Amino acid sequence: MFKQFSDIFKTDKRIFGLDLLRFAAIVLVVLGHSRWMTATFPMPLRVVLHGSGILGVELFFVLSGFLIGGILLKQFEKNNFSFDFSAVKNFWIRRWFRTLPAYYLILMVYILFYFLNRPDSLWKYFFFLQNIWNYPPYFFEESWSLCIEEISYLISPLLLSLSVLCFGKNNQGKPSYFLNISILLIILVTILRFIYAIYFLQPNYKWSYHFREVALIRLDAIYFGFILAYIAHYYHAFWKKTSFPALIIGLLGIAVLMAFQKKITDDHQSLLSNILFSPMLSIFISLLIPYLSEYKQTKFQFLAKPITGISIISYSLYLINGGLFAESFRYYSNAGASWNFITAFPIYLLFWALCISVSMLIFVFFEKPMTDLRNKFK
Fold it and tell me: Which of 157, 234, 286, 362 is most exposed, with the fewest beta carbons within 10 Å of its own?
């Protein structure tokens, strides 16, 4: 058993830069969900926490698109630039064994915990339809982002296969199908977001909920990652040469957007902000990945091990931290109404310790064993 837990902190055969990005993403998400616990913390810290969950989820989207897009592209190339149904099915099986078992496990826990407050549309959660063209009910709130990822996993190999079937006479130009489809999907999603914004742009609609969490108008965040995977694969020299300037531009762009996020998307909501804020944030996040993907190892192992460990359990941690832990703490403490900093700080540490400990247990005894089953479908 000790070996199973120690494997979480192994840093060999991993890309530290991407683990660091995943670590940052999950920490930002948990900080966002538990921000109410920090009401008595010093003001500078509370300012930093503003918008942290928004940024964390966007980091996950682009990183997921880059990693999964890279897998899909390599499989496409390995199959001699063809993608028959057998290849599509294999891709789906491998992705679903990675994501679905833990999702359904936590969904069942939610149903047990919140049975009396379950939504009328509960059945949609089993098919990732809860926020396909609408914002989701306040139930298993983290699942809205998983809906976006699962839809992208579903349609991407199908469209790639269809493009080869319709247009592929020979191998010449076939690698570009992957890029063209990714760009086309970004354009189509942007048009959908424009239509949605025109239809729903009202004073009582907020970007943070009504636009940010609607699946069909947010798929482009994943496909920016697909474009990154294509550039990394076919233009690697350019990828490496421009990685550091891109990193600086990306960090500055993210800092500016997040500093003014509330003013742009909430206080001064407009058609332009609803359409452009998310893709602009995705583009700046994309600029971080060339540098981080080349940052293979770090000599600071005392930092690498915990960062890698949190990165590895990030999916389980993502599933449980909000509705199951942060909301339970809120309910049983009356939202921390009587807390001062001396009270809040140890409770906050306890919250983090419980989230990480339970996530490690889920990963070791459920998530990883279920993921390993996909090796039978190689």
Answer: 234
Closest CA to 125 of 104, 109, 149, 102: 104
For the entire predicted model, the pTM comes to: 0.94
For 341-368, write each residue's pLDDT tens digit: 899 899 999 999 999 999 999 999 999 9
Q: Which amino acid is at 357?
A: S
> pLDDT, tens digit, for every residue of 280-324?
999 999 999 999 999 998 877 778 889 999 999 999 999 999 999
Please state, in angstroms and rounded to a whole number, the distance separating the CA atoms of residues 78 and 87: 10
Cα–Cα distance, 233 to 275 (Å, whole number): 30
Q: Which residue has the tokens 């939610």?
A: 110
Q: Is the pLDDT of residue 159 over 70?
A: yes
The Cα–Cα gap between 292 and 294 comes to 5
DSSP state of 378: -
Compute the distance between CA of residue 63 and CA of residue 55 in angstroms, rounded to an integer: 12
Nearest-angstrom CA–CA distance, 230 and 217:
23
Which among 348, 308, 355, 256 is positioned nearest to 24, based on CA atoms?
308
48 CB-contact burial (10 Å; exposed 0-12 / middle 13-18 / buried 19+): middle
CA dihedral (209, 215, 218, 221) in degrees, to 10, reads: 120
Q: What is the DSSP letter of 154?
A: H
